[in-house]
Specification:
The protein has about 160 residues and is an alpha+beta fold. About 30% of the residues lie in helices and about 30% in strands. It contains four helices and eight strands. The chain has a four-stranded mixed β-sheet with strand order 1-4-5-6. A hairpin with a 6-residue loop joins strand 4 and strand 5. The radius of gyration is 17 Å and the shape is globular.
């Protein structure tokens, strides 16, 4: 259990160190959940009456062009080399899309994370960390294919 916790903590530290370089800040409320507003659509069980969405961390910065506070509801994933698969990333992206759909409507999410004087723009960020250091290929090669020299995104 402690080993898994330490691997997850590495993703937190790496993401925070990397994104602080770009002057992004974090909201000091980590690893929380908020109530899903569409449990019949978002929950794995069709009969689910309640469902929550995870918030690993929220990064933010003030966009100088729009004068909006851009908030990234971030899903931190820490994978070993063999786990960085199209299927795992697709699943994470689908879950994150559902999370953002609710975050944009959720008073609970906005009260916790979007308490700024300027208007906000809520976005998603999937941060994938390879904790064993064995992934030595281009990450995007797993998800993009070239057709007649035009870059096409594989359907997620």
């Amino acid at each position: 259990m402690a080993e898994t916790e330490n691997i997850g903590k590495m993703a937190e530290l790496v993401s925070e160190n990397l994104l602080s370089f770009f002057k992004w800040e974090t909201i000091a409320l980590f690893n929380s959940n908020f109530e899903c507003l569409k449990p019949s659509e978002h929950a794995k069980s069709i009969k689910a009456e309640s469902h929550t969405h995870p918030v690993d961390v929220v990064f933010h910065y003030l966009d100088p062009y729009t004068n909006k506070r851009v908030l990234f509801n971030t899903d931190l994933k820490s994978y070993k080399e063999g786990s960085i698969t199209e299927s795992n990333v697709r699943t994470a992206l689908k879950s994150l899309a559902k999370t953002i759909e609710c975050a944009r409507m959720s008073k609970e999410w906005q009260k916790r994370f979007a308490n700024f004087s300027e208007p906000t723009d809520i976005r998603a960020l999937l941060f994938t960390y390879n904790h064993d250091g064995q992934f030595d290929r281009n990450f995007y090669d797993r998800f993009f294919i070239k057709k007649n020299q035009i870059l096409v995104i594989n359907e997620l």
